[in-house]
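Figure 2 data, in text form.
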Amino acid sequence: MGSLTEENRLNDILKWEASNLYSRETVTVLSGENLALGAVIGKVTKSIPTAGTLESGSNGECTGVAGGAKTQFGTYKATCITANAVDTDGVWRIEAPDGAVLGDLTVTMGTSGTGSFTDPQINLTISYAAGYNAIGDYFAIEVTQGSEKAAAIDFAAVDGSQNACGFVIAAYDASGGDVEGVAIVRDAIIDADNLVWPDGATADQKAAALAELKAAGIITRLAA
């Protein structure tokens, strides 16, 4: 006769909570997620566009926009400081929302030139489909507040879901759309051995996430 493995119950993980009115919080589980009981979650706190908007000028595109580990809220600017021409490379200065200059991007000379920029805050590509830009033309990239929806922690993400903010107290299948759920997000004692992690999560990643949970008052004790 084959053996059966009993799935975790909440009390296998949660050993104490301050009060279920305080330690627990209603969360919206992001569409497409399928969370097991005890899954460690993050929240989508940042919305990062995939393209920049040309606020001044009439030519070119800013595409391939992606955030990084240090992306700030606010508007990033890519400003033309050297105009592109047949025999001249275009140079664009990249600035963070706080005004800090992150660096310059060079677009190769000609009407079909392209250049890319990589930084822990923002990544992007500027290209000319036709014509040229003038000094002072700029693209704006606005990073805004995210949906705050919950998802399984994703250590490769840059939208906030890479940061542990709690764990769910039941299984929630959001394959067909957002669903409401409940998570432990503060002041609790847990047996971390029974938390559910993404496939491939490393010991270092788990340790970092547990440190984030500890900062919220969710502390680990060894199973008796």
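Caption note: The chain has two domains: 10-45+146-220, 47-144.
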